[in-house]
Amino acid sequence: MDVTAAAKHGFTVNLSILFSELPLLERPAAAAAAGFTAAELWWPFGTEHNPSRTELDALRKAFGDAGVRLTGLNYLDDLSRGVRGTVSVPSEKERFRANVPVAAELAASLGATALNALYGNRVEGVEPAEQDALALENLVLAARAAHGIGAILLIEALNKAESPDYPLVSAAAAVEVVDKVNAATGLGNARFLCDLYHLAKNGEDLAAVIDTYADRIGHVQIADNPGRNEPGTGELDFEDLFTRLSAAGYRGPIGLEYRPSTGVSADGFGWLPRELRAAR
Q1: Is 156 a catalytic residue?
Q2: What is the pLDDT of residue 160?
Q3: Which of 38, 128, 173, 267 is deepest in the core (most CB within 10 A)?
Q4: Cβ–Cβ contacts within 10 Å for residue 200, how many?
Q5: Residues near 4 by beta carbon (within 8 Å), at least 6 away in sequence
Q6: Which of 134, 243, 162, 154 is closest to 194 using CA atoms?
Q7: Which one of 40, 92, 230, 257 is the catalytic residue?
Q8: Tens-digit pLDDT profile for residues 44-70
Q9: Model pLDDT for residues 207-238, shown as the tens digit of each residue
Q10: What distance in Å separates the CA atoms of residue 252 and residue 38, rounded to the nearest whole number?
Q11: Do residues 163 and 169 lie in contact, with contact meaning Cβ atoms separated by under 8 Å?
């Protein structure tokens, strides 16, 4: 596979899915040993929205010792329980709002310039309009916190097969939320997280998505489809996709958010020459 079209972007490795066979605090060093200089994380503390100073400092030290910069962090999402974010969930309102400054401070201390706020699943017995109104309120708070540290706020579409209760299952739906947040804040720092795996699994035309929403894309994540493994294990044409992203003006990093097909993360980067792995 020729990935030279992605050379201008560099890559960031998601340490919540790659190197997950290792304890959290060992993952930054493992990423560095594989040639990466940047990483991203889902919210790494499970259900704990306000972890202790000791836990936060230990994570900071692990990244600092490894010489790896955190480029992106999720606000409270609790993906370990199948939750798909907390932004629109009424019962999580106080926990999410308490998490916003904690996540923003952690992101700032590690150099992250993007915070991802997963929208949250639909809740039985709650009107979708009520959830959407709450989501907008919370996303405005999240966007302002991100702006305060010089970061963008990312809004992501997931795939319906794996997240049937998540309402943002198309690029258009996610971008609609992005536009509403920007209109409400006037900051312009909400952006579309273009996860090519989720979009492909939803059956979207990836080339059309890139061309249509290039000016809204704040970050790109990849995994092959089907399988959510490394590029080359599925059907996606990453040579073409990287070329299209570059032609559309995307200059940010490419986030690797896949499961290694062998179960061993260090074996899952053979498609990507080592000299291209460092962030730009």
Answers
A1: yes
A2: 97
A3: 38
A4: 22
A5: none
A6: 154
A7: 257
A8: 999 999 999 999 999 999 999 999 999
A9: 999 999 999 999 999 999 999 999 999 999 99
A10: 12
A11: yes
pLDDT at position 1 is 72
Query: Which tokens is 96 given?
Result: 């999410």
- Residue 209, CA atoms < 13 Å, CB-side half-sphere: 24
Closest CA to 60 of 33, 28, 36: 28
Handedness of CA 17, 161, 216, 177 (dihedral sign): negative
Rounded to an integer, what distance in angstroms lies between the CA atom of residue 137 and that of residue 133?
Answer: 6
The CA dihedral of 91, 92, 97, 103, to the nearest 10 degrees, is 180
Q: What is d(CA 279, CA 234) in angstroms, rounded to the nearest whole number?
A: 25
Which residue, 187, 190, 157, 154, is CA-closest to 171? 157
Distances in whole angstroms, Cα of residue 213 to Cα of each of 31, 126, 191? 31, 31, 10
> Tokens for 5?
């079209």
Q: Which of 40, 156, 204, 230 is catalytic?
A: 156
Q: How many whole angstroms separate alpha carbon 236 and alpha carbon 227?
A: 11
**DSSP one-letter code for 179:** H
Angle (nearest 5°) at CA 168 between 39 and 144: 60
Neighbours of 51 (CB within 10 A): 18
What sign results for the dihedral spanned by CA atoms 138, 140, 145, 150?
Answer: positive
Q: Which residues make beta-bridge pairs with 223?
A: none
